[in-house]
């Protein structure tokens, strides 16, 4: 949408939404059809609307049903009298089905609408009832930007017609022998199909096309007899086993019959894999009404699914009207089933991801539901033919009935697509850059100066670790999402970072701690205005499932609200038990929170834990806790000032292209890595393995210090898990297959750096403010390592004797090409001290160092 | 080719003639404009010639012949109100039976004409689209700005009607014409609908639908644009209930005048008509320092002689958002003047609040300041600024008036305006002193959020049924409050009255120089030389080091940002284009004295 076109309404121009083909065009023969077509066009809308009205009322008010039904019948008769010449056409599913009763009249007006009778036809117990029900499906996640069309699509299954499939054609159920024995001979010993005799004696076509219904039937039967799984698997490059060489469908039908199931799930990918039916596949998508009714003559209740591409709800266009479409969404509401339950399973009101295959249809809106006037605006809905839960692990009914479930993984429609081949090559090239880590972290929130390590942590958070399920030990799922807490002085751009992440995360929700309630974060139960039924509405955490939830002002959050996070952050679910709904919702979200220290500003006189003052239960759930302190440091202050001043200089060439990756590339890269790369920790990689263990043990040791037992952030197994997650994320960033030593080292460094452990005096639990600098890059780290080594060397030369701080610094500077600042020297010395290599005694300039 | 008078009186005939010259039926290129806008633009190249076109801003619509050329200066309230498909070129037979081609641009389709030639098969394969924009009179345009632009356009000949003059009568007449042949309840309903498209409730204004034929239109909402085009014949609006087909074109229901735009031009964002005089910039620049001094004295006379507040207010009036870089909005400068109630001793603490509590529903809400002090500040600002409006922050207003534009019904695409949907550069004076304790409803909360959005992001969210779209804005906000404002302002300064009896003598020339000064310097160039940049860096580093030593609060990134903004404004106010170390020092001292004052008031 261009910039200036925004403040318009999201409504489509009404003229373009109209049904492309009038319902009656299917009438045959055309010669007698014209006049009637006109009449029907005029009356059709009215009658249809009455009928659907009938459907609605019957669903809600039982008594109103008869009244409306009479009304409808009258209308149907009107039509009959208006078109007495309606011919007894032999064409399938058309006027021939006209009879006086109300239900049939619908079939008369629109052969395709007979189709509505099985909109509910679903394999899943949720919908396996034959009465009408509405499903509201929402787009996954929150809509943050732009697009507006069809945000809310109502799926209306109108199964009020007396002609239900199972009832009407019971004799046609699964009798394979009969099917194969039918008088329509398909093939004559491998030859091409011969002329076929239709029982009705004439050949019917779908109006406005050259598709012969008979051909369709023949092709379909041929497919049923001859399709072998091998074809599909070969096409997809999968391994073929012996069973796949056998024709697939006879076995499938046999099994269906044994199960007493008369639903036939038709995987359209199979149809595509069988060369003679490729045409049928396309026909089915374009003329679902006609073709499906035809297929129903061959086998009962054909339910096509897996079209191969699912349309985003927002992308449904007028051109899709009356075509077979497949959409994916989150089931948000199910209207109650009123009469005629065939299966008594209770509705699972949990939020379910569904993939729905159905016919996209539109019906004119009415000005008033009680009047027959219609607007030229159309309400769109989907006549469902097939529903399945997108999440493969959850598939229940469908998988039992169909082993050949395609390898479909749930993919979010609001993710950034990385389709183009060139893109992929570019991303892979990017992944090979040696300074990848620095580059990406620098490109993250470029307006925020410094805070390199925070940015690195957030970068890893965006990449995320692996979700793990250990089947062998039956352990629960281990989360791969990384949670980060930023604690720091006011004015250190914490909120800005949060805002930035919120904007670029594939699904980000931003809340402020003070303004959030426990219910607002998780989920709440409310009464639906339409159906008077209790419904569950998602809160921020559930909405950010699969994304990042940013919580500002974490410290100002009330205790009770915060406690909700406990479950979310470890189990990654939200359990709701209120008002008759007991369920567990997924909330696989990373949390990025920011908080101020207990007295608004970091108090160096208190220990870290006292400053942060969060319950340890919660604190241990954060993988990284960053202390972002406003520390006076001449160098970085100057850099910062320079940065800000340059912003005010008009058109300054500040942003160097090579130094930053554009935000689009960054998000694309992250999306690509998340999708394609799942790095593992290899058992054989002893180095990485050992490094993890060592880092964990050293962290545990810090906690063991008896004098500080109360004040210390004790490492638990959670920290070990954090480290694994971070290493995985780091490996994923490099698009590597396995976690290497380097990844583990970086993860351990980040953990240490985050809480400023290197600057932390374990004796007092306080931070040595002189040691804090927030912007230490790899380059500097390398220098520091070199300095450390050189220092050790130097001390060793001196035999480990006490040497004064200053002398050492001077001597080192003499050796070195680069100037070593006092700060660098101090950091290096401190690190060595912590490693137990050397000892520092004294204070300030008086300090001496010895081994 | 054609005289100016012809162009004004018979624009459609002239368009037809130009069309015939440039049209080639075989080429079948209908998106072509046939050089018509270019031609009209060349005719009205001279500014004074444009002024000869009757303007809907000055003349009531019923006094202008339909199908003549008119112009209208207004703010775009809604872009793409509707997109119409039409046949730009139409084939017909003339009396001799010859085939002719007729241009159907710049007028709405005429049914009768089509019926004239039944013999012709209508095979019009050429279709084009025209877009309708809804344009209102510029919201917040101050009295003097209107007056001056009127007198410029009419060569100082005609008299501008004072006070409730032309504007009122025009709008009254607009109403009369709009409501011909409709009954009263309809008028009420329609008036309400039209009123809701103007940012400020219950104020007189003109609304016009402009149809634009150009493909590539760069107009955004809240742009101020002058359209020149053909006035459509007025038609009574269709009666919605009579034919009962349920769907009625929302445009037709509005029944406002309609202009078919031939060409348009954007008005300079300052909106100051004085700038049309090209020599004004030179005059301002030559006397900048003097004007600055006088202007501060003038402002201070209203603020009880407080020159520091006056200087900050002056800087506020010079501010604008000059760039948005990687999430930072540079140049925004909202000012919060605190300590109002105690200083404005001579204000008999507002009869307004009593009024509103007595009869909250019966009197229509009008956004004007009632307390003595804020109304004097309001008078000051409206005497200086071309675009200015009051915004008293009472609970009643917060709960009942909408601050943000919204489209409630997805079906009709009808975008109602909100107080904050104003043109770029408009100043709002928010009076928080009238705010009392009470319940803030849901719309009140949203309103406060919208104001906060302006203050922090300079972005205004337009509420659509299923989403919220954010537009960048540039609205200057000055908040008057007792204590620190509840709104997040960039700069807070307490008022410290010194001498209350001071008054200031004004003359026309002086006040005009003030007006030009503010408008010219607000858009002046600015740069920071390298050495000053270094100086600032060192200054920052040193300050932090010293603060750390003495244990004072550290200067943060935000503080530096604020001072950079301030330095820019100070530089501009002295008519300089380069920041110098002296100016930087001056900025520092200014901010320091502000902070000392804040500390003084906190201790009190």
Largest sheet of chain B: 5 strands, mixed, barrel
CATH architecture of the largest domain in chain B: Beta Barrel
Measured by residues with Cβ under 8 Å of the partner chain's Cβ, the largest interface is: A-B, 50 and 60 residues
Runs of chain B in which pLDDT lies below 50 for 5 or more consecutive residues are 156-183, 240-248, 345-361
Helix content of chain B: 25-40%
Number of helices of chain B: 22
The CATH topology of the largest domain in chain B comes to: OB fold (Dihydrolipoamide Acetyltransferase, E2P)
User: What portion of the residues of chain A fall into strands of 2 or more residues?
Assistant: 5-15%
GO molecular function, one term (chain B): chromatin binding
Main location (chain B): nucleus
Organism (chain B): Paraglomus brasilianum
Subcellular location (chain B): Nucleus
Explain this structure.
Chain A: This is DNA replication licensing factor MCM4. Chain A: It holds the Pfam family MCM. Chain A: One of its GO terms (molecular function) is ATP binding. The complex is a heterodimer of chains A (851) and B (604). In chain A, 39% of the residues lie in helices and 14% in strands. Chain A is of the alpha/beta class. Chain A has a five-stranded antiparallel beta sheet. In chain A, strand 13 and strand 14 form a beta hairpin. The radius of gyration of chain A is 34 Å and the shape is elongated. The N terminus of chain A is likely disordered. Chain B has 604 residues and is an alpha/beta fold. Chain B folds into three domains: 264 residues, Nucleic acid-binding proteins (OB fold (Dihydrolipoamide Acetyltransferase, E2P), Beta Barrel), CATH 2.40.50; 246 residues, P-loop containing nucleotide triphosphate hydrolases (Rossmann fold); 73 residues, no CATH class. Chain B has 22 helices and 16 strands. In chain B, the strands form five sheets. Chain B has a five-stranded mixed β-barrel. Chain B has a five-stranded parallel beta sheet with strand order 11-12-15-10-16. In chain B, a hairpin with a 2-residue loop joins strand 8 and strand 9. The longest helix of chain B is centred in the C-terminal third of the chain and has 23 residues. The N and C termini of chain B lie far apart (76 Å). About 9% of the residues of chain B have low confidence. The chains are: A alpha/beta (851), B alpha/beta (604). At the A-B interface, strand 7, helix 17 and helix 23 of A face strand 1, helix 20 and helix 21 of B.
